[in-house]
Amino acid sequence: MITNLPVYLLPNAVGTHLYTRISSAGSDSRFDTIRDSPPKFAVAFFAQATWVSICLLPVLALNSIPAARLAATVLPRSVSVTDALGLLLFAGGLTLEVVADRQKTAWMQEKREGKHNEDFLSRGLWGRSRHPNYFGETMLWSGIAVLAGGVLTRSVGVVGMLGFQQGAAVGWRGRLLGLVLAGASPAFVATLLLFGSGVPLSESKYDKRFGDREDYQRWKRETPVFWPKLG
Q1: Which pLDDT score is estimated for 42?
Q2: What is d(CA 215, CA 209) in angstroms, rounded to the nearest whole number?
Q3: Could you tell me which residue, 215 or 68, shows the higher pLDDT?
Q4: 121, 80 in Cβ contact below 8 A?
Q5: Less Cβ crowding at N or C end of the chain, within 10 Å?
Q6: What is the pLDDT of residues 18-55, one digit of tens each?
Q7: Rounded Cα gap, residues 5 and 231, in angstroms
Q8: Mean pLDDT computed over 51-73
Q9: pLDDT value at 1 more than 70
Q10: Which among 38-42, 48-52, 68-72, 227-231 has the top mean pLDDT?
Q11: What kind and span of H or E run contains 119?
């Protein structure tokens, strides 16, 4: 239940942000070139479905364990280190992503209203990381992975997932499987955002538009691309 709750919260937060942004802007520019092309739209659709499936691997693996076995061996114990760490990572990541998205939305609205003439956002969280929303996204999925991994790498997790009889020997291969299933989600998200459709596309777009400006180059020099600076 605790691991499922973040998965319910996240789509609501992201969906609300996207609905607000698209309603304000009138469209989503990311779909301008694929909206009228069924093949391109199908590729985007199945790519998103793959993304969701891989992200949900830790939760799906955890939910595959019989409820009775979880109730008998996991629920009676007190909150573990992985429980606390996972919840903190998820809460921190979700907060970062939501705040960063709201700052960006407010900045865009103020620009439309003529309250500033800035061409790129370099204040708030965006003054500490050039992509704080992506950092928050990776952080929250890491939290879900830690939460699930605390169970999946234990005997009860491996036994439950693989359908072994209670008391069956669980070796390092079984625990490694649990670790891989838990870690696949944040590893996939981080790889995609850092080297795929996230940071590279955004950086390339802004470099083409503002790459010859000193204020933009200064922002890039002083602001980390991903990990937020603390000072």
Answers
A1: 80
A2: 13
A3: 215
A4: no
A5: C
A6: 666 666 666 666 666 676 777 877 877 788 888 888 88
A7: 33
A8: 78
A9: no
A10: 227-231
A11: none
Tokens 């092309």 belong to 37
Q: Which residue has the tokens 């605790």?
A: 2
Residue found by looking up tokens 């698209």 in the block: 22
Confidence (pLDDT) at 55: 87
Q: How far apart are CA 120 and CA 104, in angstroms?
A: 10
Residue that has been written with the tokens 């929250």 in this structure = 140
Distances (CA, A) of 162 to 3, 69, 112, 144: 20, 13, 55, 21
Q: Which amino acid is at 30?
A: R
- Structure tokens of 152? 């999946």
Backbone angles phi, psi at 198, to 5 degrees: -95, -95
How far is 88 from 191, CA to CA, in rounded Å?
A: 22
Structure tokens, 94: 């979700």
The dihedral through the CA atoms of 186, 189, 192, 194 has a sign that is negative
Question: What is the spatial distance between Cα 173 and Cα 166, in angstroms, rounded to a whole number?
Answer: 17
Structure tokens at 66: 């019989």
C-beta of residue 86 within 8 angstroms of C-beta of residue 146: yes
